[in-house]
Specification:
By secondary structure, the protein is of the alpha/beta class. It contains 10 helices and 14 strands.
Length: 268
């Protein structure tokens, strides 16, 4: 049976990560990398991880609450399936032995820590697929300080909007969550039509959508993004000053231009 937070399973599917881990086995990308990630664009992240073969990491076309807020954090995942009494009974028994309290949707929230992002696959269900309302939404924000990604619905939209967190959802309905069974916590989940999220991935959410960055590539994403921003800043400065034409800036730079850029970067 798929476990509810099995550290050994998490370590096995994130073996490329060699740094610190949380108690639950997830990669713990340092907070300073998370802070720097907030300035990264989806395209910059896509370029870096795509170069390593990770091409199924982006999910778009969301209903976004507070799109002005950039969402960044370490993924905690939960997967739900249409309810079956036999599976539900086994999951409830396992949850009881592990000290889980309340409804199954609250179990995932209990696993959250500061700077985590909850990522829920509830197979796009909206009616009776409302993972959270204002109570659970407030709990998610209090525990993480970030936001949520729900491949499904929420309820209590008016109250949820009062919570100052970035939320990516598929829809809204007044019904309460029903007829679903939690299959696992911190297992790989599918978000959207073609994105895979692994526990410990870095979630980056902007107005464009969500991209899931493998933990072992997070620092490279940040470093390459910062280099791109510096190159763009220098290039824009040269265009405004009339030092170079758009054609010169928008192609591979000459050795002389590269030397000028390196000198400028050394002063920043």
């Amino acid at each position: 049976m798929i476990g509810l937070n099995d550290p050994e399973f998490i370590r096995s599917i994130t073996s490329d990560w060699t740094g610190e881990r949380s108690d639950d086995g997830r990669p713990k990308v340092p907070d300073d990398i998370l802070d720097r990630m907030k300035k990264v664009t989806i395209e910059e992240a896509w370029g870096t991880i795509g170069g390593h073969g990770y091409r199924n990491q982006f999910a778009g076309e969301w209903m976004i609450l507070h799109p002005d807020r950039t969402l960044v954090g370490r993924a905690v995942t939960g997967m739900f399936i249409p309810a079956r009494p036999d599976i539900d009974a086994v999951i409830n028994a396992q949850g009881k032995t592990q000290g889980c309290i309340g409804g199954q949707n609250s179990w995932v929230i209990d696993a959250l820590e500061q700077n985590d992002v909850i990522v829920i696959d509830i197979f796009g269900k909206i009616k009776f697929g409302t993972y959270a309302g204002d109570n659970l939404g407030n709990s998610i924000y209090a525990k993480t300080g970030t936001g949520m990604v729900i491949e499904g619905g929420i309820r209590d939209l008016q109250r949820c909007y009062e919570i100052p967190m970035a939320s990516y959802i598929r829809g809204v309905d007044p019904t309460a969550i029903a007829e679903v069974t939690l299959l696992g916590i911190n297992i790989p989940v599918r978000i959207g039509k073609e994105a895979t999220c692994v526990p410990g991935d870095i979630v980056l959410g902007t107005r464009e959508g969500i991209i899931f960055i493998p933990a072992h590539l997070a620092e490279q994403v940040v470093v390459e993004s910062e280099d791109t921003r510096q190159r763009d800043e220098w290039g824009h400065l040269q265009l405004r000053n009339g030092a170079y034409t758009p054609g010169e800036i928008d192609r591979e730079w000459t050795p002389g231009m590269k030397a000028e850029f390196d000198d400028w970067r050394g002063t920043q």
